[in-house]
C-alpha cells in the first residue's frame, strides 16, 4: 500500500492529470476494500480488460459490439459480431494477453448489430440487476462482489462468491423483467 501511495504522490507531482488519478485511486481503493481479490489482481484485471479492448479496436470491424470484462484472470466476451472469423479473432486476441487464465466467449453471430435502443435496455437491465442484489439477506454477502454485464438481454455474473450467494443472486436476477438468460461465471469460495 505504501508503494501505491508513493507512486500516486509521484504522479501527482509529475502530472497535470492528478485529479483524475487520485479520483481513480480512491474508487479503486474502495472497490478493493470489498473485493475478495487482491489489490494486485484487481489492477491486473483492469489492465487485461483495457489491453483486450485496445487489441480488438485494432483488429476487428468497427461494426462489432463487444463487451469485455475480466475478473480474476477470466475474460468475458459478450455481444455481437457479424462473422465467425471476428468471433474467433476476438477470443484469440484475449487468450494471448498476459494474466488471462480463461476466455468465456459468449459472442453471438448476427446479420445486423443492435442499435442504441437495445444497448440502452441492456444498461437498464444491468442497473435493475445491481439494485436487486441489495435485497439479498445472507450474512456476509456484499453485492459489490458481483460484477454484472448485460448483452442482448443476457446477464453475465462474475465474482468470487459462495454457492449459497450465487444461487441467491441468480434467483433474484432471473425473475427481472427483460432478462432472457442468466450466465454464471463465478468462482466459489466453498
Automatic annotation (TrEMBL):
Signal peptide: none annotated. It comes from the Bacteria. InterPro entries: BON_dom (IPR007055), Lipoprotein_DolP (IPR051686), Transpt-assoc_nodulatn_dom_bac (IPR014004). Coiled coil: none annotated. Residues 44-111 form the BON domain. SMART domains: BON. The keyword Signal applies. Keywords: Signal. It holds the Pfam family BON. PANTHER family: BON DOMAIN-CONTAINING PROTEIN, OUTER MEMBRANE LIPOPROTEIN DOLP. This is Osmotically-inducible protein OsmY. It comes from Marinicella litoralis.
Amino acid at each position: 500500500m505504501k508503494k501505491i501511495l508513493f507512486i500516486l504522490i509521484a504522479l501527482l507531482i509529475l502530472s497535470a492529470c492528478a485529479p483524475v488519478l487520485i479520483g481513480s485511486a480512491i474508487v479503486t481503493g474502495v472497490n478493493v476494500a470489498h473485493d475478495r481479490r487482491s489489490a494486485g489482481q484487481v489492477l491486473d484485471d483492469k489492465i487485461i480488460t483495457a489491453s483486450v479492448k485496445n487489441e480488438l479496436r485494432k483488429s476487428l470491424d468497427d461494426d462489432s459490439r463487444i463487451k469485455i470484462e475480466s475478473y480474476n484472470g477470466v475474460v468475458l466476451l459478450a455481444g455481437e459480431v457479424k462473422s465467425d472469423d471476428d468471433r474467433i479473432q476476438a477470443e484469440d486476441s484475449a487468450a494471448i494477453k498476459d494474466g488471462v487464465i480463461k476466455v468465456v466467449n459468449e459472442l453471438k453471430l448476427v446479420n445486423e448489430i443492435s442499435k442504441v435502443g437495445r444497448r440502452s435496455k441492456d444498461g437498464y437491465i444491468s442497473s435493475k440487476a445491481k439494485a436487486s442484489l441489495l435485497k439479498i439477506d445472507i450474512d456476509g454477502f456484499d453485492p459489490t462482489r458481483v460484477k454484472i454485464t448485460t448483452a442482448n438481454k443476457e446477464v453475465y455474473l462474475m465474482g468470487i462468491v459462495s454457492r449459497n450467494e450465487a444461487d441467491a443472486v441468480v434467483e433474484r436476477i432471473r425473475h427481472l423483467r427483460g432478462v432472457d438468460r442468466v450466465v454464471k461465471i463465478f468462482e466459489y469460495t466453498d
